[in-house]
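Batch manifest line 320
LIGAND: manganese (II) ion
JOB: complex structure
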Amino acid sequence: MADHPTPPADASTDDPAAAPDGRRVGIIGAPMDLGGARRGVDMGPSAIRLSGVIEELSRLGHDVRDFGNVIVRTRATLEEGDSSARHAREVLRACASLAEMTGEVLDDGRVPVHLGGDHSLSIGSLWAMAKRHGPGGVIWIDAHADLNTPDTSPSGNVHGMPLAAALGMCANFPDFRHDGWPQCSVDPRHAVLVGIRELDPGERRYLRSPGAPTVFTMSDIDHRGLANVMAEAIAIASGAGFLHVSLDLDVVDPADAPGVGTPVRGGLTYREAHTMMEQLSDQPISSLDVVEVNPVLDTHNTTGELACELVCSLLGKRIL
Ligand SMILES: [Mn+2]
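JOB STATUS: finished
ARTIFACT:
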C-alpha cells in the first residue's frame, strides 16, 4: 500500500533544536475527502509531506518511517448514499483500512501520525488505538465539536461526526458499524474538546448533558488562559487506555490557516497553536491526527506548512 518512499533512516543530528528524546514515529497519509462538502482536502497529505515533515522530524532526532497512504475510493465512482450521512459506508470502509495500517505502525513500536484528509479519518485511527489498548482519552482540538450524528447533522457531512462515532453515538446507524472494530473507542470521561467556537444545536444539547465530554471553548481560553486550559485538558484526557491528540487545522484562525474546508473566525493565533503543541510535547502522546488541510483553498501551502510545524512542535521542536 505504501506509495511514498521511506526516507533514509538517518536519525543522527546536530540540530540544536533537536528533541531530547528521540521517538519512533510512523506516518500514514489519509487522502480522505468523502466526509466533507468541499473538494481538495484529499491532497492534504501531499501538502504536509511536501512541507518536509518527515525530514524535519528526522532532524529532531526521531526515527521516522513513512507507511504511505491508505486507499480511499474516488468520490466520482461512488453513490452518495443516505443524505443524513453522505458516503458513510465508504468513509467507514476507508477507516477500517486506515486502522489496519495504524495497527502495523503500532506493531512496529511507533507513534502513529495520521495526515489528512478530512476529519472522518479519526474514526479509523481511534478504532486502531482502542482495539489495542481499550477505550482511550482524546484531546480534540478543533473549531467544531464533530459530535453530530446522522440524526442531528444539519449537513449530513461525516467529517462533523467522528467524535460522536468514536464515543459510540452512531452505533444505531448501520453504515457506521464495522465488524472487527470497537463500537466505542473513546471514554467520554477522558474526552476533552479545545478551541471550539461553532456548535450545531444537537451538539450544544449533548455537551450540556450529564456524562458528556468536557469542552473548552475559545471563550474559556480567553478568560482562563491557554496554558491553564491545556493543563486541565491534559489531566482529563490522561489515565485511559491511550492518549490521542486529534488536531483539526481549522482551530487556528483563518488568517494563519486559510486552507481549511470550514474556516471560522476568532481562532487560535499562530503563536497560541505552537504554545499548545509545546505544552503537549512532554506528554506520553500515543497517537496523533493532523487533519483538514485543503491545498485548493490554501495560499502557497501556508496551511500545509503550518501542519508540519505544529507536528514538529508537538514532537519536541523548540526555539532554544
Ligand atoms: Mn474537525
